[in-house]
Amino acid sequence: MKGCEAIGEAAIHAGCRLFFGYPITPQNEIPEYMSGRLPQVGGVFVQAESEVAASNMLYGAAGAGCRCFTSSSSPGISLMMEAVSYMAGAELPVVIVNIMRGGPGLGGILPSQSDYFQATKGGGHGDYRLLVLAPSTVQEAADLVIEAFDLADRYRNPVMVLGDGIIGQMMEPVEFKRTVEPSELPLKSWATTGCAGRQRNIINSLYLKPEELEEHNWHLAAKYREMAREVRHAIYETNGDMDVLVVAYGTVARIARTAIDSLKEKGIKAGLFRPVTLFPYPTEALNETASRARHVLVTELSTGQMVEDVRAALGKRPVEFYGRVGGMVMTAEELAAQIEKLAHAAAV
Amino acid sequence: MYNEIILAGFGGQGVLLIGKLLTYAGMKAGLEVTWMPAYGPEMRGGTCNCTVVMSDHEVGSPIASRPHAAIVLNLQSIDKFEPTVRPGGILVMNTSLINRPAVRSDITVVPVPCNQIAQDAGTTKAANMVALGAYIGASRLVDLALVKNMVAETFAGRQQLVNLNHVCLDKGFEIGQAVAASAEAAART
Question: What is the ipTM of this complex?
């Protein structure tokens, strides 16, 4: 299946029956797929009048206690940011899929990874964080989307699945390992499900009394610290000592794998550290793995975003960066040449 | 085993379809597979292409700058992709629309008059199938039968189309097989 389609189908398998979205390349296949599939399973598909509307519909549906999701790409995600901040403030579980494209502004339609800051540092206003997951295969995208719904419910927080135009358009075999029916999902005692026989529930992010808002913010901060237990990463060829440790996520990590393999016959020992959760970031594991490498090379489809988190994690040691932008994607050969150059440089 | 194949032509020739058929066949054969379409500037220039990766271990990069094979259905595509094929690789070229010979001498070139063969079988629209058959004949990467099954599934309910496509696959296969055989024989002398 196409990555986009697999993401849609995964949401169905997670018991999600609501999609509110808007078209934008390169994720059009997600709303297209949902528009056909949701009626088949008794769900509802709405193409909203804009991403602003779609994201606010999400707020409403989540507040009513239903699993719901949306997808968009970069500029569309920007339009959703106000609603995302509101959802985080009101502690609403939603899943948001961003199939990144070239930016800034209207940019281009080809793949990029230039929304890392937006996803992990907060594209919306206020003291909030999103749990951010970054798949690198169509199978992983399907798996992580299903998990995203569980994580969103567990933490009562929006969860973002961060893909790019490559994973969205690529076709790979996929297996859906779990299926949950909406009726099997536990009821949400905090949601607005009709308050006959109980105190009314209120979904809200407005706290006019500063003492209350402060308490609420510290509560959110504590929740985000708790999220740290969801941290996840993957490694490739990182046993023992390495000449170069490549740090990359998403489809770029796959390109890095091919580059790393191609250097084996030249006797260059390169490894790959692939964060799967971008928030919380696998700082500890990265530190341990990087300690066994003479050089660290971060590679992204951006002018340098995740590299800042890597530098923060690794402290004083130099961290090299190689990026392509605008929809241009590095080839494995190109990346291998960068790794090889670094491998031959003296350790600093 | 790790194989990267680029299929290229102009929009409408069914390049993406034959890429998908090849990919599905690989999946049925138990291989790890990836299909990646290329959109972007080339499309305005009239080229459309996809990269298929078939492997017995996890697929790395879904894009290939030095593929093991290229199937090119028009002149722009051969101009763009002939130089990228690895030495010892395969180039299937549609001589109905490509009016020059291949330049490389270090790859196995399979010239096939795809449009002509498809026209004789019923319609030039099936030229892509001739090219696919030729590639499979030359490379033996997957079983032709698997591809034929996928065609039957894809065009289920339209037996005439299934038959036509099968004929085109077979004719292409024969050509590809013959070229590969004579290349092997030449290599042995």
Answer: 0.88
List the single residue in B32, B33, B40 with the smallest CB-CB distance to A110. Answer: B40
Residue among B23, B35, B61 minimizing CB distance to A255: B61
**Closest residue of chain B to A170, computed from CA coordinates:** B36
The CATH number of the domain where B177 resides is what? Answer: 3.40.920.10
| Tokens encoding B141 | 């990467």
Kindly report the nearest CA distance between residue A76 and chain B, in angstroms.
20
Residue A92 structure tokens = 């609403």
Give B127-144 pLDDT, tens digit per residue: 999 999 999 999 999 999
Calculate the alpha carbon distances from A66 to A4, A44, A72, B31 in Å: 22, 12, 20, 39
Nearest residue on chain A to B50, judged by CA atoms?
A: A170
Query: Do residue A115 and residue A48 come from a single domain?
Result: yes
Residues B28-68: tens digit of each pLDDT: 999 999 999 985 444 444 678 999 999 999 999 999 999 99
Nearest residue of B to residue A330 by CA position?
A: B63
CB A118 within 8 A of CB A78: yes
| CA–CA separation, A285 and A234 (whole Å) | 10
Domain total of chain A: 2
In this prediction the pTM is 0.93
- Taking the alpha carbons at both ends of chain A, their separation in whole angstroms is 45
Q: List chain B residues with CB under 8 Å of A26.
A: 39
- Both A164 and A244 in one domain: the answer is no
Contact B40 A170 (CB under 8 A): no
Nearest-neighbour CA in chain B from A331: distance (Å): 6
